[in-house]
From TrEMBL, chains A, B:
<dbReference type="GO" id="GO:0006189">
    <property type="term" value="P:'de novo' IMP biosynthetic process"/>
</dbReference>
<keyword id="KW-0436">Ligase</keyword>
<dbReference type="GO" id="GO:0034028">
    <property type="term" value="F:5-(carboxyamino)imidazole ribonucleotide synthase activity"/>
</dbReference>
<protein>
    <recommendedName>
        <fullName>N5-carboxyaminoimidazole ribonucleotide synthase</fullName>
        <ecNumber>6.3.4.18</ecNumber>
    </recommendedName>
</protein>
<comment type="function">
    <text>Catalyzes the ATP-dependent conversion of 5-aminoimidazole ribonucleotide (AIR) and HCO(3)- to N5-carboxyaminoimidazole ribonucleotide (N5-CAIR).</text>
</comment>
<dbReference type="InterPro" id="IPR011761">
    <property type="entry name" value="ATP-grasp"/>
</dbReference>
<comment type="function">
    <text>Catalyzes the ATP-dependent conversion of 5-aminoimidazole ribonucleotide (AIR) and HCO(3)(-) to N5-carboxyaminoimidazole ribonucleotide (N5-CAIR).</text>
</comment>
<feature type="binding site">
    <location>
        <position position="147"/>
    </location>
    <ligand>
        <name>ATP</name>
    </ligand>
</feature>
<dbReference type="Pfam" id="PF22660">
    <property type="entry name" value="RS_preATP-grasp-like"/>
</dbReference>
<feature type="binding site">
    <location>
        <position position="107"/>
    </location>
    <ligand>
        <name>ATP</name>
    </ligand>
</feature>
<feature type="binding site">
    <location>
        <position position="213"/>
    </location>
    <ligand>
        <name>ATP</name>
    </ligand>
</feature>
<dbReference type="InterPro" id="IPR016185">
    <property type="entry name" value="PreATP-grasp_dom_sf"/>
</dbReference>
<comment type="similarity">
    <text>Belongs to the PurK/PurT family.</text>
</comment>
<dbReference type="Pfam" id="PF17769">
    <property type="entry name" value="PurK_C"/>
</dbReference>
<dbReference type="InterPro" id="IPR011054">
    <property type="entry name" value="Rudment_hybrid_motif"/>
</dbReference>
<feature type="binding site">
    <location>
        <begin position="266"/>
        <end position="267"/>
    </location>
    <ligand>
        <name>ATP</name>
    </ligand>
</feature>
<feature type="binding site">
    <location>
        <begin position="182"/>
        <end position="185"/>
    </location>
    <ligand>
        <name>ATP</name>
    </ligand>
</feature>
Length: 356, 356
């Protein structure tokens, strides 16, 4: 048995955005302090953290000083430089582990890993050159989508191919970055599973949610998903297979396309996930607490759903709707404390309780 | 209509204990920063607050500097010196208001106020001298209980009279402090109501909970209370009458004795209350968020109960039970981040979900 981290210990969190903010709040519930490491000034998590370090992920001295103040390290964000992780890992335990991060940082590595586990993904091909591109279009066909292998999120670093004529433009859009060409998946909807694995290998999953995107950004997650029960079970089992294969500790988000042939994995995220925010008002133990429990070596909490929820992201000037939302008793609001409203910026989310 | 405080604003909180800590977390959910004012170093709320000031409540310069950094002031604790409140009130709005605080700071004033509202209390008499004491014992009889008029909490500042022979000792126990002698109330159980009133006069109450004390400190609160529905309605109506009479803004705790003659008010607390901690896992909007909403001029949230809960305080070495409690999926833990375990010290609470 793992020895649980004692209350009063400090959890280091790489990244101080809204995920770090909500992780920090969950950590406080279990008696932990948090220390946030974040390159930008005044990040959302700073308002609810015991300590904040503002420095670049490349600043080795500051990373070392940070590590020395914490008992365990986790992250809200997967695009952390490898050299920084090497340094941190030499000083303190990092959960989820380096292997999970390595795999999810690169779309090609991730899809190869999933395929080797026997899990379905969109057809994919590696593209590093014009020659690769020609071969990839021949193999994958169109419509298809080019994505940078690394650093893509919320639809960034992507280019669509309606036909083979778009190939040159799509390659140019990658600006020389290694990329994958992904085949078009004919799906009826997208669902995701937020699953957790403890240090002792206990696995638990929240009910799958149904996701709707707008402009490449998650718009709503609805729980329960209106998808045949058999597919929901498949989704949970597939998430569990990934967790065990990675000897994973923490919360993992897995996005699936629902197709006539069953589930196809879109991508995995080695962290708490926007599509799991509904758990804050749908479950006794939310995804943030579940992650902190796992990272701290505690047993997992109760992730059973007590209420049906529609989570909606409030993006940019969606915040103009705040007066109406704050007066709606069905709406549980979660604001991120960001000073500036910008188009496309996630400012808050609302969990609308649709039954109890 | 009141203009709601804008997200990004700062709420000043007097007192940095566990109530301040949980208020601070609730404030973050609504996009507010908090600034804690607390005399002792490293208070529980400091881990989750944007700013902390460590100074005495008598330090006028520091109080003034504190007030100038915040948009509105509230408190977790009612025993704040009157002169400090006068100063703060001249600089920023304080909710709940001075009148609520004045009344609840003094048991005699409080009981007189409740009696004038037509609400039942234990029989009481003012005691400032031996002459008063003799008259009080003659009027109230025994068994009865002496309590200091001010600064009592968790059973402190109290002395029991089994018979008239205990009168001299009880008076001596008050150490010269003004006191009241309260008659014995023959009650079957204690319940409490946590109620809220918004700046616009909207009133909402959480379901009444049934309280069990041990050694003068709250041990458990069980919701729903096993008390006739008529009495639960009475309790909510009485709490509402108090809120309206005080033009109150914020959350108020009201403790009642359940007697064969109906409800008798034990005391009121002009703040979030230990017997309302169950709302964190029983309601969409907990007492802490409800208080922040009211103080910020927002509409009240949804305080309907979605789960039955037994809240238990973990006091002193109750913390030895942590390994068992963290592994029990029915238990939602809330730790206060206090470094030292001391006998009688509230360290944490657990909300046990008994149905969903």
């Amino acid at each position: 048995m793992t020895t649980p981290l004692a209350p009063g210990s400090t959890i280091g969190i790489l990244g101080g955005g809204q995920l770090g903010r909500m992780l920090s709040v969950a950590a406080s519930r279990l008696g932990f302090k948090t220390h946030i490491f974040e390159p930008s000034a005044n990040p959302p998590a700073a308002d609810v953290a015991a300590k904040v370090t503002t420095a670049s992920y490349e600043d080795a001295d500051t990373l070392r000083a940070f590590a020395e103040t914490v008992d365990v390290i986790t992250y809200e964000f997967e695009n952390i430089p490898t050299s920084s992780l090497d340094l941190l890992e030499s000083l303190r335990p990092i959960h989820p582990n380096r292997e999970a991060l390595r795999i999810s940082q690169d779309r090609l590595t991730e899809k190869t890993f999933l395929a080797e586990l026997g899990l379905s993904t969109a057809p994919f091909a590696n593209v590093e050159s014009e020659v690769d591109m020609t071969a990839a279009v021949a193999e994958i066909g169109t419509p298809s989508i080019m994505k940078t292998r690394r650093f893509g999120y919320d639809g960034k670093g992507q280019s669509r191919l309606k036909s083979a004529e778009d190939a040159a433009q799509a390659l140019a859009d990658m600006q020389g970055a290694p990329a994958v060409l992904e085949g078009f998946v004919n799906f009826s909807c997208e669902i995701s599973v937020i699953a957790a694995r403890s240090a002792d290998g206990q696995v638990s999953a929240f009910d799958p949610g149904e996701n709707v995107h707008r402009d490449g950004i998650l718009h709503t997650t609805t729980v329960p998903a209106k998808v045949p029960a058999r597919l929901l079970t498949d989704a949970v089992l597939m998430a569990g297979r990934i967790l065990n294969a990675l000897d994973y500790v923490g919360v993992l988000g897995v996005e699936f396309f629902v197709t006539p042939q069953g589930l196809v994995i879109n991508e995995i995220a080695p962290r708490v996930h926007n599509s799991g925010h509904w758990t804050q008002n749908g479950c006794t133990c939310c995804q943030f607490e579940q992650h902190i429990r796992a990272v701290a070596g505690w047993p997992l909490g109760d992730g059973n759903r007590h209420s049906d929820v529609v989570m909606e992201n409030l993006i940019g000037d969606d915040m103009d709707r705040l007066p109406e939302l704050m007066a709606d008793p069905a709406c549980a609001l979660h604001l991120y404390g960001k000073a500036d409203v910008k188009p496309g910026r996630k400012m808050a989310h609302v969990n609308r309780i649709v039954s109890g």
